[in-house]
Amino acid sequence: MTDSTASTAVHVPHEDIERVLFDEAAIRARVAELGRKISEDYKGRPLVLIGVLKGSLFFLSDLSRKIEIPHKLDLVGARSYVGAGSSGSVSVTKDLDFELRGKDVLIVEDIYDSGRTLKVIRDMVALERPASIEICAMLWKDLPSRACDLEVRYVGFHVENVFVVGYGLDYLERYRHLDYIGVLSPEVYR
Ligand code: IMP
Ligand code: MG
């Protein structure tokens, strides 16, 4: 029987996780900070959060609930990664649902890696002529250089150049549900 009165769970990471980088509490605290900052910065403005499927799903839903000002949500779909290496090309799999003209758009992405996905999404959003476009990335991968340099206004955490999963990030659609962000053991994709 499970103990429904237990308030803290003992956290044993998934066996494929080499190490945990950000646990649930750290993520929650950082998302709350970002939500407060975004609420201040966009006060009185017609804010629309656009999440990039599927990696940003959990981040988007948590962040939205920490933003204290009215805002709308939309989702776009993009796919660029096959396995643990960038395929280099990005395809859009779900388009925008509503008009963005005159709106202040904040693109919410899981990770700023090569920047290719964000560039494609940003260009797609720009065609709608919003009043402004900014990017919020849960993770910023520290790379010596990247294919597309973009201005990312809000960053959750920096990570070294390793393959990470959890809290929305996947490897072949697995590990998204983990409530922490961790480094995937290289044995899994070797
Ligand atoms: P891009 O290389 O910046 O275009 O990243 C494209 C997508 O690849 C991101 O939105 C993620 O979904 C995925 N991705 C990049 N790095 C990682 C990683 O370390 N783990 C899991 N997915 C990643
Ligand atoms: Mg993604």
Q: Helicity, in percent?
A: 10-25%
Our count of helices gives 4
Shape: globular
Report the span from N to C terminus.
38 Å
Order of helices and strands: EHEHEEEHEEEEH
**From the alpha-carbon coordinates, what is the Rg to the nearest angstrom?**
17 Å
**Strand count:** 9
Instruction: Note the main sheet.
Output: 6 strands, mixed
> What ligands can be seen in this structure?
inosinic acid, magnesium ion
How does the helix and strand content classify structurally?
alpha/beta
Portion of residues in beta strands equals 25-35%
Unreliable segments of 5+ consecutive residues: none
Report mean pLDDT, rounded to a whole number.
Answer: 91
In short:
With 190 residues, the chain is an alpha/beta fold. It has helices at residues 24-41, 57-66, 116-126, 186-189; strands at residues 17-22, 47-53, 71-82, 85-94, 104-112, 132-141, 154-159, 164-165, 181-184. The chain is 23% helix and 35% strand.
